Amino acid sequence: MAFMGNPRRNLRRLSAALAPLALAWAGLAGAPTAGAQTDAAIREQVTPKAAPRLTKAPVLLRFVEADYPPVAQQRGIAGAVTLDVTLDAAGLVTAATVLSAPDPSLGAAALAAVRRFVFSPAEVDGQPAALRLRYVYRFVLQAPFVPRLPAWLEDAVTGPGGAVAAPAAPEVVVGRVREQGTRLPLADAAIAFPDLGLELRADAQGRFGVPRLAPGLYRVRAVSPTHKPETVEAAVRPGEQTTITFYLEPLIDDPFVTVVRGARRQTSVSRVTLAGRELTTVPGTFGDPVRVVQNLPGLARAPYIAGALLIRGAAPEDSGTYLDGVEIPQLFHFLGGPSVLNPEFIERVDYYAGNADARYGRLIAGAVDISSRSTQTQRLRGSVDLNLLNAALFVATPVTERVSIAAAVRRSYIDALLPPILAASSRKATTVVPVYYDYQGRVEVRLRGTDRLSLLVFGSDDQLDIATNEPEDDTAFDFGAKLRFHRLVATWQRSFAGGRGSARLQPFLGVENVGFGAGATRVDILSLGGGLREDAELRLGPAALLRWGVDVELRQASFDAQIPLPVPYRNPAAPIGGNDGGPPGGGSGLTAEVQPVRVDQLLGSVGGYLGAILELTGRLQVLPSVRVEGFFYYEKNLRLAVDPRLTARYRLDTATVLKGGAGLYTKAPEPQESNAFTGNPNLVLAHAAQFSAGVERTLFVPELLLDAQLYFNYRYDNPVPTEEVIVGAEGVRPRRWVSDGEGSSYGLELLLKHDVTRRLYGWVAYTLSWARQQQLAGDPPARFAFDQRHILTLVGSCRFGRGWETGLRFRLVSGRPRTPVLGGLLDGDGGFYTPILGAEGAGDEPLFHQLDLRVEKSWLFDLWRFSVYLDVQNVYNAENPEATLYDYRFRETGPLRGLPLLPTLGVKGSF
Amino acid sequence: MAAGPVNVHARGWGLGLGVAVVASLAACTPDFEASWAVRDLRLLAVQAEPPELLYRELPPELLSAGEGPAPVDPVRLTALAADPRDPEREVEWELWACTPEATGCREARRRWPLGLDEAGRCQPLAEDAAAPRQRSGLAGITCDFVPTLALLVASLEADPYRGFGGLPVVVELRLFDGQQVVPVFKRLAYTVPLPYSPIPAGKEANRNPELAAIEIDGVRWTRERLAAELPRIPVAAKRELLPVAADGAKESYLVVTTGAAGERADPLRAPGVQQLEEALSYEFYVTAGALSHGRTGGRGSTFITDKKVTDLTSTWTAPLAAPGLPIRFWVVVRDDRGGASWVSFSATVD
After folding, report:
1. Per the CB < 8 Å rule, is A573 touching B338?
2. Is A725 touching B (CB cutoff 8 A)?
3. Cβ neighbours, 10 Å, residue A541
4. Residue A692 and residue A679: Cα distance in Å, rounded?
5. Those residues with Cβ within 8 angstroms of residue A229's Cβ, 6 or more apart along the chain or in another chain
6. Which residues contact B107 (CB under 8 A, 6 or more apart)?
7. Smallest Cα–Cα separation from A354: which of A340, A341, A368?
């Protein structure tokens, strides 16, 4: 970066261009004659000398500005110089002498100037005549113009490619080049003054300056390789500093700051990472990054707009979801709402379909790890996002050079929109009122080197009320549910061992409250807890990296309820599903009244892991690890698990990697499965063994990757309901749950993915899968409820310039398993029909196919950006029945229609 | 409307709840015929008289391995069948008895076809025998059932509760209407003392509840009056039907609660005896017109407030045109432990 000229302090001289005039000549008595004067003129009348009559006074035709002597300027010497001037008959000065001067230098300067004066000829008695007159030349010092040169401009030196044109007068032009919409400074932008042949470059902050420029009108042009050039006309005026700010329009509008730090090390078998535009612009995902994961291989399609993650044939609670490695208690808001994290806080999402490494525990299926975005920023920025469901606000600002803060909040307003919509429909009796909000806040401190310290607070509050209260309706259904949590996570990221090691320490606190109520029944579960995570790695040598960590999560759960309790009697002739609701052969009845129940227990786990990344040859990378964890769960169970895991990657050539992995995974039973009231306290830990093998290959261009995997998961010791009753001398007791559950899933996953570039991104995901799980103890494993044989998803998005972006998503998915219903069987004790079932899972629901489109138009302004987006799900309104409905005796059928055409409109402003 | 057998993993209840909520709120569901409308051959109820056999002392060899009929009293089984297309028609039917671990006899581990002798007794035949088809009018589907020793022993072994609180035996009746099979199953209760299942002092066997009358718009129509005369109702008129249970129909009864057996003590459970009260429920069926409710009474739920638990009426709207034939009504009363009876009557519309 170079600047023109040598900037130095200069006192500017104002000319004493106060034009003189004045003459009077001797001989005339009376008032002196005043000649023509300039605005700033100071005139002195000089008394004429002799008798001849001055009939025409001389007029100064040419004034010459005297050079203000620098020494006198610096010393602040000013004043009047009186001179004796002799003019010839032509008006030319033939002689001049200094009569008096405040300083000899001023006298000399005035003398030199006066000698070059030209007057009009004087006339005495009507004839041109020579004349002597006295002239006063005044030197005046004014307050010098001090341009506000910034420090960087004063200190800069002339660099290559820069040359300052020799200005006649020193004026200053300073300026800045920024990107339109984001206000990001454009480093190294080129600035040219074509009229002067002058070129210079902006510095890292986008600043430029020209310290010496003559007054006038100049064209100034700013050029950047990724932006449209712009030319302005700048007026440089005397005594003024001129400031120019350029806002250059990017050639391709990319609101996502993609910071490429180098390729991320891929050390897993099944990890897929989503980042950038992929997170928020996939059609049908409501701009929610976590929902985008549902479009990757290995995930079954959840019904309607449910956000559940069904990974490789497992129920949602078998997979783990994390934010920066800390488990999130709840991922989605109620009734198909967005995930609980504002997309502005999300940097990327890592999805592990299986074989997650030892950092991840308390799961037996897959993992989704959300990495929060660093909120370090050099400028104030933010966004407001409004759509039909909710409004979101995000702000980030630097506090000091090292400290930044960011905050986001989101609130739904569907509780205001839905009731009138339902009131207008045929279902007058039902009101559904989901209300949710979520918030995130973060303080980030940049420490020495790459060390970071941050404090993240986030939380979510969901409330759902469903009420039926039409007077004509007989049933009044009053159900309310709430789910809220708050988390505080501190993160200290540091390097050690001279940079060979890095560690991240995360203590956290949390509170969680789950509750529901229906009629007189009420359940409230409050959990207070905290934990600690430490993840560290140390490079032992060029071929070995050691990794270890601690993962502790403990919470004190208080279960407080008013519930009808099972009365442990058995009615042999009780109907199915009546007040007993028990299995065939009759079950226990429920008490008519609700009873208070209170249970307090410490739940959680204490775990640690150790592993390594070994480069055994130039091509083979092996990652052995082991995770050891102790689990606390209902009722006062404490059990230990040791889970070894191994991943290997072999680079076949520069474009191809073979990979494989195997490992054991463990989780504790869910509270409702192991507590004494509804479950079996003797349940042991649930396990899974996961195996996968595959290949990755870069095709044609570096951004295009093909990933193919085969996988096999075997789940054992899983909780499964049982009809078994323990019969003993003291009586009988239903066992309810046992740890004998088995299940397995296997299949093929293909992913062809084009990474995010300025113009486009997209992928094709295909899954071929089988999944079976035991539904009842003693029964053979049956098809998993979401065992969809083929799942094909196409996602693509393209930017066309001028702020337009369009995207599509197409899904073609096999139907869920359906057990054929052969007819209805009347329960003669209850008066209801039960279905006569064919072979379990012998058929499938109809094929699902749906096309979703998204269109977004953005407008860039200098200081902000505005965009409007329209997301349309099920563009051609395919029926896609989600289930089959039957009449009372299972003879007539009808479809339960899937999601109809669903448009969502939203606007977003960001600065 | 019934949702089909959603094969949801028991642990994915959260997802199922979401689906159920959305399904229940979906406005686009088919319009199925109501269960109270009798348009073709229907089985509406089966009565076992008595619904429960109670023996304070275990009859000798009752639960011993052996052949032949069990030393217990017969239970009269009577089916309530109707076909408005041809009320006087004859129909073929067969009976089965089976172990109680499944729903009905089709999926039971062991099942026996029942044979009917001339005295009207039905007894299990050999397990691998073909089920004999019977033929009778709709009002003649009845027999006196006596189980065999083998059936009782097999039922005891298959029952998850091992006879605790009473041993259930399942019988299934199948009517044949051309290619259509119309099945119903019923549980019979045999309460006998067992080491882990004593019979509380004062416990009595269950009895079938009885209906004393039907009130039509507040006017009492007893069984006898309904048998003797037909209510006359104008076209499109509305009539409020209220079932009136006979005195003593709603019984209090004693049950033995389970104890704290097993590896962990249940803090709420203590072995003992508890007194419970029956909740009677009523079902309405009709061959023409429309009913506001097909079912009233019952126990209700702590989750849903249902007015029809206490308001037992159902409003019938007569058809817009006189059908020419009398309209048939049936009202069935059930207790919640296998007892049932009914009243049937006709009305004319003009």
Report:
1. yes
2. yes
3. 10
4. 34
5. A221, A222, A223, A248
6. none
7. A368
Give CA–CA dist B233/B345, Å, rounded: 13
> CB–CB of A301/A811 below 8 Å?
yes
* Measured distance CA(A325)–CA(A534) in Å, rounded: 10
Residues in CB range of B40: below 8 A, 6 or more apart: B83, B84, B85, B177
- Chain segment A317-362, per-residue pLDDT in tens: 999 999 888 888 878 887 777 888 888 888 889 999 999 989 999 9
If one counts every other C-beta atom within 10 angstroms of the C-beta of residue A508, the result is: 22
Q: What is the dihedral of CA B295, B39, B245, B1, to 10 degrees?
A: -10
ipTM, interface predicted TM-score of the complex: 0.91
DSSP summary character for residue B9: -
Report DSSP state, residue A311. B
Q: How far is A296 from A791, CA to CA, in rounded Å? A: 10
Cα distances (Å, whole numbers) of residue A49 to A22, A43, A52, A523: 15, 18, 9, 119
Paired tokens of A449: 């080197």
**Mutation site for B-interface testing, chosen from A425, A464, A825 by largest number of B Cβ within 10 Å:** A825
How many CB pairs lie under 8 A apart between chains A and B? 333
What is the average per-residue pLDDT within A489-500? 91
Does the pLDDT value for residue A53 go beyond 50?
A: yes
Structure tokens at A832: 């209801």
A905: Cβ–Cβ under 8 A, 6 or more apart, which residues?
A: A387, A388, A868, A869, A870, A871
Closest Cα in chain A, distance from residue B119 (Å)? 25
Q: Do A885 and B33 touch (CB under 8 A)?
A: no
Interface of A with B in 600-659 (CB under 8 A): 635
Lowest mean pLDDT among A279-283, A805-809, B174-178, B288-292: A279-283
The predicted pLDDT at position A152 comes to 57
Residue A656 reports pLDDT greater than 60? yes
Contact across the interface for A887 and B51, Cβ inside 8 Å: no
- The torsion angle over the Cα atoms of residues B114, B116, B120 and B123, rounded to 10 degrees, is -40
Q: What is the pLDDT of residue A168?
A: 38
Task: For tokens 């789950």, name the residue.
Answer: A514
Secondary structure string (H, E, C) spanning A73-139: HHCCCCEEEEEEEEECCCCEEEEEEEEECCCHHHHHHHHHHHCCCEECCEEECCEEECEEEEEEEEE
- Contacts of residue A747, defined as CB under 8 A and 6 or more positions apart, other chains included, come to A312, A710, A711, A767, A768, A769, A770
Element (H, E) at B338: none
Distance from C-alpha of A134 to C-alpha of A80, rounded to nearest angstrom: 12
Least Cα separation, residue A368 to chain B (angstroms): 18
User: CA-to-CA distance for A511 and A488, rounded, in angstroms?
Assistant: 9
* Residue that is written with structure tokens 């109680």 in the block: B100
- The contacts of residue A445 (CB under 8 Å, 6+ apart) are A402, A403, A452, A453, A454
Q: Which residues contact A30 (CB under 8 A, 6 or more apart)?
A: none
Tell me the one-letter amino acid at A71.
Answer: V
Q: Which chain A residue has its CA at the smallest distance from B282's CA? A: A831
A714 contacts A769 by C-beta, under 8 angstroms: no
Distance of CA B287 to CAs A110, A453, B82, Å? 129, 77, 9
Whether A457 has a pLDDT exceeding 90, the answer reads yes
pLDDT at A710: 97
Q: Which of residues 13-32 of B touch A (CB under 8 A)?
A: 14-15, 18-19, 21-30, 32
pLDDT at B31: 85
B residues 308..337 contacting A (CB < 8 A):
308, 311, 332, 334, 336-337
And the tokens for A451? 């060390």
Nearest to A866 by CA among A909, A807, A814: A909
Say if the Cβ atoms of A894 and B298 lie within 8 Å: no
